[in-house]
Amino acid sequence: MSEANESNSPALLRKLFAVILTSCEPADPSSLWEQYRSNLAGDLFCPHNVELLHENQCEEIYNSCLILIEHQVQQMRGQHLASYGLPIKRHNSDHNMIEYNRYTQYSIPQQESFIEENQHKLTTEQRQIYNLFCSQVHSSQPGITFLDAPGGTGKTFLLNLILATIRSKQAIALATASSGIAATLLTGGRTLHATFKIPLDVHMKDMPTCAIKKNTTLAKVIIDCSAIVVDEAPMTHKAAYEAIDRTLQDIRGNSSPFAGIPTLLCGDFRQILPVIKNGTQANIIDASLKKSYLWKDVQVVHLQTNLRAHLTGNAHAGSYSQLLMSIGNGTYPLLEPPTTITVPPSLPKADTTEQLIHAIFADLPEQGQNDQWILERAILAPLNETVDNLNHTILATLDRPEITYRSFDTTLTTEEATHFPVEFLNSLNIAGLPPHKLALKIGCPIIVLRSLDPPSITNGTRCRVVACHTNVIEVLILHGPAAGNHAFIPRIPLVPSTSDMPFLFRRLQFPIRLCYAMTINKAQGQTFQTIGLDLTTPVFSHGMFYVALSRVGTAQRMHIYAPEHKTKNVVYQEVL
Questions:
Q1: In a 3-state reduction of DSSP, which class is residue 232?
Q2: Is residue 152 scored above 60 in pLDDT?
Q3: Which of 91, 114, 437, 535 is the most exposed place for a label (fewest CB within 10 A)?
Q4: 3-state secondary structure 329-369
Q5: Are 238 and 289 spatial neighbours (Cβ–Cβ below 8 Å)?
Q6: Could you say which DSSP state residue 221 is in?
Q7: CA–CA separation, 476 vs 115, rounded Å?
């Protein structure tokens, strides 16, 4: 807090305070509030002369500050400040109204303006789906629709227009997505797990339900809900949808699928399916949405025109779209059965990793501070190990001082501490966790590994490092609804959600990684102008090669390094 206070921005400081409450497990929130409340409420005292204010007036201003912080805490975790022992004064009805307003506070004129500006841009096939689902919502007709939309077909544009149309009628439309990044692309979007409070171990339970109680504000939202939209739906385990189905039926007293709420599930089964730790092909297929008892009630509609390719104006865009579909459908000719193919000849190739880095980041010394240039390019790889090596190599090319942060690693029990020393814990590099040794330079891009302040900073948000302090890092958010805003990221305690380790441990570290390069899984749902693909280790899961190629609109913007110019294309025909 002391380091962040140097920014002289009470609004930023309040956001950091909310993140500390929700993510850092502070031992004494009240003392922290008392120490910094003047800084947190600094802008609220203006234009008052503090010395002339009565004590009661000061307390009212501090209470107003706590109310602002509580709004942010509710947005982040749905919690009240009273649970942290902070001296806020407000009525319980205020709490409930704030939470309910999150789903209803859309400006009707803004929604109507958005519709007027964009409705005429719909293609013929987009308009058919738009009319189909909007009429279903308007007539309160129950049913689940699955929109099969390959990358680049204008799905996000269509979904936001549908959401605006429903909300312009003062109706509640829940916008959700399987990943944080996909959620930020939808107006008012949140992750599926956050919206419906789905247990993290939902796939390990026999008859799972969501943690939503009757007679709560969220239950009232569900009762009043007119539509549900889920993007990147195939990425989520079928058990999550079944838990939502049971919960909605219980709350609404309706036995129809999703309790009769018109639901639009969207995505592409050619892309990556639910991640199953050490799962076999059979395990992954069984976890997919198509294997749920709900699928028999699903109506499937299609978007087929690849607008991402055609709108580039490239003469070869159509052929690239056809190449993507042959890769995604598994019809691209095999070199060596069952999965090995030759890298398509139309794609630019690199003979070494160094050549690949040069093709994507040759102008890094000059363009490193150009946020748009950084945002529109990345190198993708299947494994975290490859990604880490690429990031360290690229970072070393920057002629700036390097700042290194080391994590504080501990086991969760004293008994385990005797068996697993700190040096061993430091050596662990687990997916989803930041490294023990985090090397940064001012201006480098990073990717956030936890949803700290959704939708502004969520899991997958990319930022640029602005300042490095001992306990907090200042960043500039590069994309999403808060693009262009500054934020503070503190060290937070992190426990791996899934691990092959026979024990659990806690890592206190900044929840970030470098992101000149990122895994193919992390890139799903994002669009780039230029992509490098390092296939030193071939892809190993359904849809990975297709996802990597479909991040750009033309072959000329995709550069590939693959030993012997061949790779794998894993496609599970059972889910297509």
A1: coil
A2: yes
A3: 91
A4: HCCCCCCECCCEEECCCCCCEECCHHHHHHHHHCCHHHHCC
A5: yes
A6: H
A7: 31
Q: Quick one: pLDDT at residue 56?
A: 75
Q: Are 342 and 349 in contact (CB under 8 A)?
A: no
Beta-strand ranges (E) seen in 320-471 are: 340-342, 349-350, 377-381, 403-406, 408-411, 437-440, 445-448, 462-468
* Position with higher pLDDT, 307 vs 251: 251
What is residue 545's predicted lDDT score, i.e. its pLDDT?
97
Are 487 and 208 in contact by the 8 Å Cβ rule? The answer is: no
Spatial separation of the C-alpha atoms in residues 188 and 102, rounded to whole Å: 8
341 within 8 A of 335, measured Cβ to Cβ = yes
**Residue 378 tokens, joined:** 């990345």
Q: 119 and 111 in contact (C-beta within 8 Å)? A: no
User: Residue 539: which pLDDT band, with cuts at 50, 70 and 90?
Assistant: very high
- Whether 375 contacts 526, CB under 8 Å: no
Cβ distance 310 to 540 under 8 Å?
A: no
**CA-CA distance, 98 to 107, in Å (whole number)?**
16
- For residues 475 and 466, what is the distance between their CA atoms, to the nearest angstrom? 5
Q: What pLDDT score does 50 carry?
A: 54
Give the span between the Cα atoms of 248 and 263, in whole angstroms.
12
Letter string b/e over residues 381-414, b meaning 16 or more CB atoms within 10 A of that residue's CB: bbbbebbbbbbeebbeebeeeebebebebbbeee
> Distance between CA atoms of 153 and 316, rounded to whole angstroms?
17
